[in-house]
Write a sequence for this structure.
């Protein structure tokens, strides 16, 4: 049995470390001439809003590996993850199996923006109930429900109406929750 | 919190589901004109045997994605994994982060030979202490030591001298251990 010396935090990638939704929405709006905003997505997924005939088209963006290569960072994520790593064991746990073409692009993105996270702390999975950690930060409430440990919901339009998990509205909130805020503000 | 109705088994891929060592050894011997056998590898890794100047060359085989595409199955693995899946939650937990080029090839291999394992039950990871499961079958003793749960060591030359974990000498032993042997013999 392995002694756990430091508490372990599992961080989701899309819409937590990377600002996936902004890019996805921009591209969709541009290609389909729509003006869907984040406010329109309150309590909904993009799939719910585009209508059944466009679900496949909306999903197709996420099945292109290049999509994940150039995603912008969620504001503050680099700095706070770095600080968390000094006190906690930080794992990245991405549901990459939802889009199996995306492994290499997601890995490349992580190495570019979070080079201080060792490879051994990167997990590409599907069902997040397989993750053993003390905390999980994720925008997906189903992921958090599957997780055995303390879940924190990272605010995104689709989860804005959900209750049941402590909520973090961005990376400054995460820093506060884990007590590393004083080291960078 | 998620209720666990079925016990969960985490299965390693290389040298458990796939016969990686046989192919690796064949290719190395062919390319370098050596005659290293599995018996030579008792208690050793190939890296220990080839000498420091050839470690990088030996490792290079595993960094080529094609290597993982055509690996033969470990005898009995398909049938026993199928039977296990009827009673247990079966997850594949591969330390794919050791060779980050290998994700897609490993995924393709799994879909070809184990199409009945859902994507959500596939995990590519590094440090296996992040896996939450009841059992883990792995040829790596360090992986089993990191795991919180019951480890079973799958016999390979390199671990043949290790003690400390119940040992399975192939898939018939696994079927016996988990009580599914009667359904296929």
């Amino acid at each position: 049995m392995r002694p756990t010396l430091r508490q372990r935090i599992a961080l989701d990638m899309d819409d937590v470390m990377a600002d996936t939704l902004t890019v996805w929405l921009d591209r969709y709006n541009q290609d389909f001439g729509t003006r869907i905003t984040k406010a329109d997505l309150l309590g909904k997924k993009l799939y719910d809003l585009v209508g059944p005939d466009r679900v496949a088209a909306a999903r197709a963006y996420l099945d292109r590996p290049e999509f994940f290569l150039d995603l912008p960072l969620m504001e503050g994520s680099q700095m706070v993850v770095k600080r968390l790593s000094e006190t906690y064991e930080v794992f990245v746990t991405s549901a990459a199996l939802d889009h199996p073409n995306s492994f290499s692009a997601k890995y490349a993105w992580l190495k570019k923006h979070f080079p201080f996270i060792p490879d051994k702390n990167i997990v590409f999975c599907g069902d997040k109930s397989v993750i053993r950690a003390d905390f999980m930060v994720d925008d997906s409430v189903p992921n958090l429900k599957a997780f055995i440990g303390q879940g924190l919901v990272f605010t995104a339009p689709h989860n804005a109406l959900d209750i049941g998990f402590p909520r973090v509205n961005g990376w400054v909130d995460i820093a506060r929750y884990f007590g590393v805020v004083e080291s960078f503000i």
Observations:
- The interface with chain B takes residues 1-2, 8, 10, 91, 93, 96-98, 100-101, 103-104, 107, 118-127, 129-133, 145-148 of chain A (CB under 8 Å).
